[in-house]
Amino acid sequence: MADTAYLILENGITFEGKFFGKQGEITGEIVFTTGMTGYLETLTDPSYYGQIVLQTFPLIGNYGIIPTDFESAAVSARAYVVKHPCQNPSNFRSEGSLDAFLKERGVIGIYGIDTRALTKIIRENGVMNGKITSVKPTGKISNDIKSYKIENSVPSVSAGEKKFYKSENSKYTVALYDFGSKENIRRELNRLGCDVWKFPCNSTHEEILKISPDGIMLSNGPGDPADNKEIIKNLKSLLKSGVPIFGICLGHQLLALASGFNTNKLKYGHRGANQPVKDTQSGKVYITSQNHGYAVVSKTIDVRIADEWFINVNDGTCEGIAYKNAPAFSVQFHPEACGGPHDTAFLFDKFIQSMEAKKNASK
């Protein structure tokens, strides 16, 4: 029988459940994701750094652990909250159970709580901190819960050194500016004929431009985009380089900040594989996969510099920007989504076309 675990929210509400994975004590920012599948990608997505992840779908772990589906080598989530973890997965690709995987990686999990009630609390009150512990709460909220803050997030998940990934059909060279990138961004670029140089987040614009890239990809990543002042400074120079740029998620936000626009923290963010976005140019609506707690403030976009390209159908927030002063565009969602819909995978083709146009113009 698993030991009793408690999840204490910073507003004093407590949930009682059971431990799975590692047993222990951890504090973090609690966020929820609505994906019915993709729990492996969620656990290994660096964008969840510093966060306790709550799955709204009740049964998690039913197709086991499949390492080839991981988005990074590490688990960035601080802890995991589910209703029912599957102990007997059934999948020909499975190499073990979720419980065993979390134990192996030293990740604390809690199950058996009312995940629907917890999700409603976050939706109504906004993202908040919480603590998982084996110690029964006394009613007084400890200072470590209220004071917890995600810090040094991008440097904690970015590549430690420059790495090269060769495509089987090399046509272009892309510099992937790594803020905590998902592996499927690199895989998609390789599949489309791009040799990829992955650059750590502390790389300068001179180091990136030194390889004479045909294009620059700005990756996803965790935390408050405004914390990354040196990266924003480098992006200002990269925007002036004339090299085509494609930003995804945090990369989208950082490019906006480099252009003088603002970002803000959303009440509870967008996390899941069913987020509808509207193309303001065509009027088409796409279903997208998303994972972010911050957004670009639409009213701060200077129309002399850029146009708002996509908006979120649910709340009207900015989901994409097309730039006028540089061959650049960015989106808040994940066109490379795994798991998730591939409705917007055409954006990678658009990036390829922009690199091809630049090559032809320089001949």
What does this structure look like?
The protein is of the alpha/beta class. The protein has 2 domains: 4-149, Glucose Oxidase, domain 1 (3-Layer(bba) Sandwich), CATH 3.50.30.20; 154-361, Rossmann fold, CATH 3.40.50. 23% of the residues lie in helices and 31% in strands. The protein contains 10 helices and 19 strands. It has helices spanning 39-43, 98-105, 115-125, 143-147, 153-157, 183-191, 205-209, 229-239, 250-258, 346-361; strands at 4-9, 14-21, 26-33, 51-55, 59-60, 79-82, 84-85, 108-111, 128-133, 163-165, 172-177, 194-199, 215-218, 245-248, 263-279, 285-296, 306-312, 318-323, 328-331. It has a 10-stranded mixed sheet with strand order 10-12-11-13-14-19-18-17-15-16, with helices on both faces. Strands 1-2-8-6-4-3-9 form a 7-stranded mixed beta barrel. The chain has a two-stranded parallel ribbon with strand order 5-7. Helix 6 (183-191) links the parallel strand 11 (172-177) and strand 12 (194-199). It is globular and about 70 Å long. The mean pLDDT is 96.
Q: Which architecture name of the largest domain does CATH use? A: 3-Layer(aba) Sandwich
The computed structural class is alpha/beta
Query: Which strand order spans the largest sheet, edge to edge or round the barrel?
Result: 10-12-11-13-14-19-18-17-15-16
Uncertain ranges: none
What is the CATH level 1 assignment of the largest domain?
Alpha Beta
Calculate the mean pLDDT score and round it.
Answer: 96
**What is the ordering of alpha helices and beta strands?**
EEEHEEEEHEHEHHEEHEHEHEHEEEEEH
Could you tell me the number of beta strands? 19
What's the gyration radius in Å? 21 Å
How many domains? The number is: 2
Beta fraction of the residues?
25-35%
| Count of DSSP-assigned helices | 10
Q: What percent of the residues sit in helical stretches (DSSP H or I)?
A: 10-25%
CATH superfamily of the largest domain: Class I glutamine amidotransferase (GATase) domain
Gross morphology is globular
Amino-to-carboxy terminus distance: 70 Å
The CATH topology of the largest domain is given as Rossmann fold
**Major sheet size, sense and barrel closure:** 10 strands, mixed
